[in-house]
Design a protein that fits this description.
The protein has 218 residues and is of the alpha+beta class. It is built from 7 helices and 5 strands. The chain has 2 domains: 1-32; 39-217, Nuclear Transport Factor 2, Chain: A (Roll). It is globular, with a radius of gyration of 23 Å. The N and C termini lie far apart (83 Å).
């Protein structure tokens, strides 16, 4: 009987430990931000609202300050983007041939290119709002398209759609459609031509030179 009780004791302690861990985990979930498990369309609405509000209240952003724009992208947008997947998709089949160092450099140069290319749009934000259309997705879908329009200001509404994937860290954007043109598809053709002519290092060099030229113009 004594040996049986001794053998059973660790099992009881294990159950108590498991129960304690479960309680801690539940408390962490309850105390997590409300948007931690939000739906993809709600995520886009919230982040866009934060970006628009930040730009409206920051004269440096409205004047096109690249350093401030990069800071905005890093703090407000990049946490909700799968930028590695976006870069890999733009590079296409050549991504598998790239070394880890080349992949890091491609992501860094591609990010700067996108920020400088689209920074002008941020400087135009005044009273515009992002209207999210009803989400059409199958139950349990792990990849969706969130369709939106930027309304306000002058001219017609601007179509702006997002492709997102569900990850353990929440929904992440991996492609953007601006007025009917998907970003990844546009760059994939350009990148393929550059890589075919000069290799992956040639593409990195071309992106770096383009970014330097854009910086000088600014």
């Amino acid at each position: 009987m004594a040996s049986s009780a001794t053998a059973a004791a660790p099992t009881r302690r294990q159950w108590l430990a498991a129960a304690a861990l479960a309680s801690v985990a539940a408390a962490l979930v309850r105390s997590a931000p409300a948007h931690a498990m939000e739906a993809p369309d709600a995520l886009i609405q919230r982040v866009a609202g934060e970006v628009f509000e930040t730009v409206r209240n920051d004269p440096a952003l409205r004047q096109g300050d690249i350093a401030r724009i990069i800071e905005l992208v890093d703090t407000k947008i990049m946490p909700h983007a799968d930028f590695e997947r976006m870069t890999a998709a733009a590079v296409g089949r050549f991504w598998r041939q790239a070394t880890p160092e080349q992949r890091q450099r491609l992501q860094a140069e591609f990010k700067i290119l996108l920020v400088r290319t689209y920074s002008g749009a941020l400087t135009q934000i005044r009273d515009q709002t992002l209207v999210v259309r009803a989400l059409r997705a199958a139950p349990g879908a792990t990849e969706v398209v969130v369709r939106t329009e930027i309304r306000g200001g002058r001219g017609d509404p601007i179509q702006l759609d997002y492709r997102l994937e569900q990850t353990p860290a929440g929904w992440k954007v991996y492609d953007v459609n601006v007025m009917g043109v998907w970003l990844v598809e546009t760059y994939r053709t350009q990148f393929a031509q550059e890589i075919s002519a000069k290799g992956i290092d040639g593409l990195i060099a071309a992106l770096s030179e383009r970014n330097r030229s854009n910086a000088q113009r600014n």
